[in-house]
Design a protein that fits this description.
about 200 residues; three-stranded antiparallel beta sheet; two-stranded antiparallel ribbon
Length: about 200
Amino acid sequence: MLVLDSEAQVRMTKAAGHESSAAIRQKAMQQEIESNTVTVALDAGRPVNDLQAQLGKPLTSQQVQDKLKQANPNLIFERSIAYPELTGVYLKTWERNATGALQEIKKHLFGMESGIMPEFSVRHITRKRVPNPELFGRKEATREVDWIEVETFLAETRGWRTVLVRLLHMGLINRWHVEKHFGWNPSKESENWHTQLK
């Protein structure tokens, strides 16, 4: 008859738990690094953090608003009082109130620039320190943490094509509207434009 050695089993379970934790930490670190890297990846060879490279065919915020109002008259644009460089994009819709009566409401969708808008979003980047993923899973114990720096997303100057993508995904405009008012094909090759529309 086989008898399990409980002390040996406890050690094996503990060791498996440590290996599993290390593997989970390693995977999480790798995913974070990949996620940070993707946010600042080149767009068809163009740096996404360079205004000149992302400028494309610039439009004023008012031009974009006028074209979008023609595409969907229920879109509302309001310049932010606290942050005048930003304009809120809202949808005029109807909702039943507590008494059951229909009332008109404004539903906030997202923000966009108030001045000149580049065709493609410009991503402002920063450097972020993360633990070196190669240290995880080492056999020898170490107390020092070796850091690496990765570039990552900090903020965005939203381009008008990004606004179009968002509205297309929400079903508030369609391809015909984009072709008529903006042109479907970007002024420069953009992998991001084609990828986001799949």
